[in-house]
Fold this protein.
Amino acid sequence: MNVLLIGSGGREHALAWKLAASPMLTRLYAAPGNPGIAREAELVALDIADHQAVVAFCREKSIGLVIVGPEGPLVAGLGDDLRAAGIKVFGPSKAAARLEGSKGFTKDLCARYDIPTAAYGRFDTPAAARAYVKSQGAPIVVKADGLAAGKGVTVAMTEAEALAAIDDCFDGSFGSAGAEVVVEEFLTGEEASFFCLCDGKTAMPFGTAQDHKQVGDGDTGPNTGGMGAYSPAPVMTPDMIDRTMREIVAPTMRGMADMGAPFSGVLFVGLMITEAGPKLIEYNVRFGDPECQVLMMRLRDDLLVLLEAAADGQLSHMSARWRDEAALTVVMAASGYPGTPQKGTVIRGLEQAQNSGVEIFHAGTAERDGTIVANGGRVLNVTAMAGTVGEAQRKAYAAIDLIDWPEGFCRRDIGWRAVEREKGR
Ligand code: AMP
Ligand code: GLY
């Protein structure tokens, strides 16, 4: 089968790497891809926003399945336009992508189907949102309703911070994404990411992970898209997975089907494991980045077979098997990130690092005269697998120490929570 993969980050490199191992694969194309993905796929310069151009490419190359990596094209309806042209897609429709595209939509679904989540209010004027904050007090969480590139959430420890965040949203800091805000209860507990492959009817558990959102060691500093991740997540015990499926995922699948927007694709369930059990923080309608990188390392089965089954509505016959080892990925970022990253700096020693027994997924790189240079905020994902999270951590950092890139940086403590747990055993 010929496959087109949409996207250009570390998540898509990990997907390409795993897809390339499928005996079912004939040719893999990636648009736009990156220099790491180019090792596994033929890169094509397609304008993803031009859906008819994507349709024309799929026809020309007899694409059997399109796999959409990021949320942007899904929320924009790329899946619908491809399906309307008779092309098979892994990824939800525009209507189902509202689970990520509108936080208010998801909160209302939770309310209607009794899905455990933080108590909330939805507001389209600053005055109403401010009044709600004043009635609830701090700590409290303010979220722009729409897609804000991971930057639309403020966990406010004081009322003043929350009020400032409301003003930011309505002042247009997040464009149209901030025209409405959700204000919600501050939850405490341990966060975990849980994934399900979905085919509209069936949801199949597809791995657990934990990521580190903050830029600095010890989980300090501003939030990022994710500075590293590991899998499995120790808090996601079989019992917790079972509860999450029953209390959160199953009613969501039912709710989406009931409103004529059945969910197919990958559902990324962002959870807070509280004293009262799992609560939904947010949904994403795509794989996590960098969570996908650690999932792909551990997946034993043929990814292409599973994603096609999801696109075909055939998941009820499937299951996924995982390696027992732990996988851990460390993000190397360009200095300046999560602000404006420095671009164009030269990265050396990648081959030597890769030969130490890790996978290096490219996130934001470019190739210039045969050398790899930084071309984004998150640049490389150094990914290791071992018997314990601690060993995987050592392997990843040993490989990082072989990379010669003075303008790059990484956290030195990815996986600390799991490593501490292992020490306590
Ligand atoms: P999100 O972009 O929705 O993933 O939110 C970013 C981060 O904010 C999450 O990973 C949590 O750490 C935090 N967060 C979001 N909602 C809440 C909440 N209701 N209570 C506590 N922390 C939250
Ligand atoms: N790593 C978090 C995300 O992909 O949203």
DSSP finds 14 helices and 23 strands in the chain. The radius of gyration is 21 Å.
